[in-house]
């Protein structure tokens, strides 16, 4: 091949076009939703550069505006999420969004670290990674966007979301609201974005895009595997099957109250919710009685439990998606059982090999398995958690028992004597996270998770003592 002027000029034009990509400002009317992933990535690159050129105080203003817009639009967004996905409960979605708006950490989480000594000064700073691609679940379409959006931007990044296709309207509406809050508070357009029609193909485009610096997957095993096989820095927040273990020393009435509240939260749609009860035989009858006495738990007879199980678990042994996140009344009605409006949770005694003990059901139907003693209880609860390293709950007043279970189960979240949701900061201490990274170990993710560490060393001097 000979190099002539025409060929050379073509190559130069291509190179210039590539360099110019991502440097054009977005139109004033841009609302956070792009036509293509490529466009979103290029917009995000420009926005992220603008963000890091701004003072940190401006970043705080942006975060404050994001929090406020969630609170201002909470009723509308919670209603939309329930209507579109048909998962969860309106009043619990309200709580989910308030939790994420108020208890997601901001820039306070990326405070630098300084160390001085005989050899001078070392400064460690938490720097942005750049552009993050975040894949979000249908189960918490609003909570995950709010938590991820605030955390990632607090850390100085831009984020492109690929929401679950089944929650497209809710997710894109939430992204538009957050985007408007950012721009109205003086932040860069394109800092948070998505595409009008997120699909598995657009997820793949984000995963493979050379200019996306970090991937964050919140969902089931396949999506976690997809980001971890990308060759990029990836954070995986996967499925769980949280057991709640009750021993004979527990305050049983409190345990019953907590399990009914936690297990029915948002119709059990949170990955952290109690999914099966493991109880020491000696206190099993009292626990069940006290659960019934809350007025919100209905005890299924063995025959009713069989009917409900054959409804919610299909012939292939998989969860029937029709019943995920539905109200207990609806599920029970389809099984020919009528319960009053107060009922939030169906409970039943189950053998150890019952499918709902082992499947992540995400619906208010809770199996209860008796064990002869705490040793057997710990052994069994560890097995049903299945190495997800996600969440486990225990009701006990015996510190040795609690320590033994916590050590054996190795979960990211371990809740003692409270509902599981206390572990994500709802009525419990600490910040919230809706991306709980068990598989990759970042745990309750926050702004610092979405950074890379940079060190600066000044040799000799700069000490004031
Ligand atoms: P999902 O895995 O079906 O979807 C999550 C996201 O990943 C969606 O955006 C989806 O489009 C995308 N996706 C799915 N498979 C993919 C693939 N092979 N390649 C690329 N993208 C893919 O999950 P879901 O049904 O939306 O959510 C429920 C699951 O998520 C449950 O298992 C729950 O435990 C888990 N979850 C975990 C956390 C956590 O923090 N650990 C939080 C919420 C939900």
Task: From the structure above, extract its key features.
single chain, 465 residues, alpha/beta, Aldehyde Dehydrogenase, Chain A, domain 1, Aldehyde Dehydrogenase, Chain A, domain 2, seven-stranded parallel β-sheet, 42% helix, globular
Notes on the structure:
With 465 residues, the chain is α/β, with parallel strands linked by helices. The chain has 2 domains: 29-238 and 444-456, Aldehyde Dehydrogenase, Chain A, domain 1, CATH 3.40.605; 243-424, Aldehyde Dehydrogenase, Chain A, domain 2. Helix content is 42%, strand content 18%. The protein is built from 16 helices and 18 strands. The longest helix is centred in the first third of the chain and has 17 residues, at 37-53. It starts with a helix and ends in a 6-residue tail after the last strand. The protein binds nicotinamide-adenine-dinucleotide (NAD). Nicotinamide-adenine-dinucleotide binds next to helix 8 and helix 9.
Strand residue percentage: 15-25%
Strand order of the largest sheet: 11-12-13-10-9-14-15
State the CATH topology of the largest domain: Aldehyde Dehydrogenase, Chain A, domain 1
Number of domains: 2
CATH superfamily of the largest domain: Aldehyde Dehydrogenase, Chain A, domain 1
Which whole number gives the mean pLDDT?
95
Query: If classified by CATH, what would the architecture of the largest domain be?
Result: 3-Layer(aba) Sandwich
If helices are DSSP runs of H or I spanning 4 or more residues, what is the number of helices?
16
The top-level CATH class of the largest domain is Alpha Beta
């Amino acid at each position: 091949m000979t190099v002539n002027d025409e060929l050379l000029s073509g190559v130069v034009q291509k190179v210039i076009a590539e360099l110019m990509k991502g440097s054009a400002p977005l139109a004033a009317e841009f609302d956070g939703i792009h036509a293509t992933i490529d466009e979103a990535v290029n917009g995000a690159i420009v926005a992220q550069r603008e963000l890091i050129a701004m003072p940190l105080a401006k970043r705080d203003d942006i975060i404050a505006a994001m929090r406020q817009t969630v609170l201002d639009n909470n009723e509308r967004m919670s209603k939309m999420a329930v209507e579109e996905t048909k998962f969860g409960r309106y009043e619990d979605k309200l709580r989910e969004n308030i939790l994420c708006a108020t208890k997601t950490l901001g820039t306070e989480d990326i405070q630098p670290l300084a160390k001085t000594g005989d050899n001078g000064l070392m400064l460690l700073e938490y720097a942005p990674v750049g552009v993050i691609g975040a894949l979000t679940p249908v189960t918490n379409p609003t909570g995950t966007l709010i938590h991820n959006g605030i955390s990632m931007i607090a850390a100085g990044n831009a984020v492109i979301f690929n929401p679950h296709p089944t929650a497209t309207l809710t997710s894109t509406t939430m992204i538009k609201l957050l985007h408007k809050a950012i721009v109205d508070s003086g932040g860069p357009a394109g800092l948070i974005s998505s595409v009008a029609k997120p699909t598995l193909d657009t997820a793949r485009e984000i995963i493979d895009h050379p200019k996306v610096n970090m991937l964050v997957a919140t969902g089931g095993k396949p999506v976690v595997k997809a980001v971890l096989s990308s060759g990029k820095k990836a954070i995986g927040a996967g499925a769980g099957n949280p057991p709640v273990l009750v021993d004979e020393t527990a305050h049983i009435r409190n345990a019953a109250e907590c399990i009914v509240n936690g297990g029915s939260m948002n119709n059990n749609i949170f990955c952290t919710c109690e999914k099966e009860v493991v109880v020491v035989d000696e206190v099993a009858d009292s626990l069940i009685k006290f659960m019934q006495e809350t007025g919100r738990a209905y005890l299924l007879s063995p025959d009713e439990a069989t009917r409900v199980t054959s409804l919610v678990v299909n012939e292939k042994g998989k969860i029937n998606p029709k019943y995920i996140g539905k109200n207990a009344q609806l599920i029970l009605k389809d099984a020919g059982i009528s319960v009053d409006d107060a009922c939030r949770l169906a409970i039943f005694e189950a053998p150890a090999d019952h499918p709902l003990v082992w499947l992540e059901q995400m619906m208010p139907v809770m199996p209860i398995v008796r064990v002869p003693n705490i040793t057997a209880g710990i052994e069994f609860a560890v097995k049903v958690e299945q190495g997800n390293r996600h969440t486990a709950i225990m009701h006990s007043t015996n510190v040795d028992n609690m320590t033994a279970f916590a050590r054996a189960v190795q979960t990211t979240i371990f809740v003692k004597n409270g509902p599981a949701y206390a572990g994500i900061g709802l009525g419990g201490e600490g910040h919230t996270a809706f991306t709980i990274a068990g598989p990759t170990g970042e745990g309750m993710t926050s702004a610092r998770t979405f950074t890379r560490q940079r060190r600066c060393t000044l040799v000799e001097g700069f000490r004031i003592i």
